[in-house]
Specification:
Number of helices of chain B: 13
Oligomer: heterodimer
CATH architecture of chain B: Orthogonal Bundle
Number of domains of chain A: 1
InterPro entries (chain A): ABC_BtuC-like, ABC_transptr_permease_BtuC
Radius of gyration of chain B: 20 Å
Family (chain A): Belongs to the binding-protein-dependent transport system permease family. FecCD subfamily.
CATH superfamily of chain B: ABC transporter involved in vitamin B12 uptake, BtuC
Shape of chain B: globular
Distance between the termini of chain A: 29 Å
CATH topology of chain A: ABC transporter involved in vitamin B12 uptake, BtuC
CATH class of chain A: Mainly Alpha
Transmembrane segments (chain A): 45-62, 74-96, 102-121, 133-157, 177-197, 218-235, 241-257, 264-285, 291-310
Organism (chain A): Enterococcus saccharolyticus subsp. saccharolyticus ATCC 43076
Helix content of chain B: over 70%
Strand content of chain B: under 5%
Radius of gyration of chain A: 20 Å
CATH class of chain B: Mainly Alpha
Order of helices and strands of chain B: HHHHHHHHHHHHH
Shape of chain A: globular
Subcellular location (chain A): Cell membrane
Largest interface: A-B, 46 and 49 residues
Amino acid sequence: MRKVWLFLSLLLLAIVSLFVGVHQVSLYGLMNGDETQWMLLLKTRIPRTISLILAGGMLSVCGKIMQHLMQNRFVSAGTIGMMDSARLGILLVMLLFPNGSILLRAGVAFIFAYIGVLLFLNLSRILPKGDPMILPLTGVMFGNIIGAVASFFAYQFQLVQNLSSWLQGNFATVMEGSYELIYITVPVFIILYLLAYQMTIAGLGEELATNLGMNYQLLQFIVFALVALGSSAVLIMVGNIPFLGVVIPNLVSLFYGDHLKNTMSVTVIFGSIFLLICDILSRVLIAPYEIPVSVVVGMIGGALFLFLLIRRRKG
Amino acid sequence: MKKNHFALKIGALFALCLVVVVVFLTYNTYGNWDFALKLRGKKILAFIFVALATSVSTIAFQTITRNQFLTPGILGLDNLYIMIQTLLFFFVGGIKMLSQESIWMFIANVGLMTILSVLFISFFMDKVTGNLFLLLMVGMISGTLFSSISTFIQVLMDPNEYDLLQGRLFASFSNVNSNYLMVAAAIIIVSVVVLWFVAPELDIMHIGRDHAVNLGISVNRLQTLCLFCISLLTGTATALVGPTVFLGFIVVTISYRLFATYQHKKLFIGSFLLGILLLVGGQFLVEQIFQWSTTISTVIQFVGGIFFLGKILSERKKV
């Protein structure tokens, strides 16, 4: 029953998101066939809302899967250097092929993100297994270093401001004809969902999963490739969105427990809802201007993250 | 382990440092001795103090966190500094900011960073177990917050203003203000002396927290003291020359390899000398060989990245 309510609130928020903005779009105007309003709705509002739902869901479920496979509650695309690696890839494309297509950018970003993840998996094996926070902290350090290499190139070629504005999480630039790449996340969702059962078992740890007759390494390679693909598509289309991949899965597990297969759809819906709310706020707070959604997510997500951390410590 | 010729290594390093410093001071002066020495002498002093601050603080930090992949940069101080500067440049204006540099500005900057870290330490360090990881996580999260605010403001900025800001944000040793240098030197020296005195206790931290407690060390007090000094050192170095994230990391990684010792006093001295060598040598290359096509800090970052990856791969082989 509860899932129905979740789904309904997602629908409601999506509708609200369609009607929020500088230019007025109202039901009344649409009924009367107001042409500008229809154009706005089709060209920017609907694409934006769809991107929000897909990006929020993708980041959230990717975070959940990483946490499950690495057996650590605090890892996500942002805290293991994956986003920084993708950024380095994008920068190199900007430098070498300034007129390269968006597909080329996305492809290179994906390859770099994947290499970054594989490197970090190697790193995670040699870290001391003490506190669960060691892994994300080292991951951030790893990301910083990749980022430093990127900023070295950016500084050399005067691209710093260009790159940082381009990768700041922002849905203001989403419009028809420039956002279709986000649909890559749909097949990723489907494949991940089909693998949910295997991933649930893999989360028990390498030894146990292997004893149950699973090719653990292969699964890891496939799943992390999918995660890298989904995350870099979101990065290219809307930019960097901090904390979402950590905070949402942890909130979901507070209410619904930790079973991966059973909570996957809830995690997706929660992520979409969270991002929709943040984006509506970013459009409303200083209207007629917009705050980039990454700043809003950073504030709310950061506060939630701190709350979760302190709560866990006390528990 | 073969006999470790520590004195020999330090002597060699010291000699190398001397050579590099002398070459740096005297290369291509075109006969304008006084002028060149004045200008370069100031730079050399800045290098020496930054090397001292970053190397000592990184070693102490890695010991109390027991993780050789971390640096004090994780506390989010760099991001705080970047945010302060960005806000000032945005609201006060770049030209004005660069023309009126007062010593109070500098002290306020360092003070703000230190106060924030002290607040964090007193709130988030586990009083009972002395666990530091929550504190580090909080630092990291705050760092992300600061940097998302900075990014937002920087995107709004006029590109010309942004260029001025960039000069401030990328570590630069070319125009260190000598008034600052005195204050910064005082803060750095005091903090380093404190860490030097607790070095024997830090040595014991290597064998684990519980053993250290059993040997009569009040670990929590030691951690608080160290973190305070580390924040002071990091904050001062950052405010003096801008963010130098990986200098400390490179230097201490080499030091652990080169000196193969757990004794902090030896490590402090060794990494300090290495830091001078790296900074002065690097600056010399940048100034005279590459002719200013890049900044020393970007060179350091680049080398640091390579080192980090190398460390991952080499540790992996050991397992």
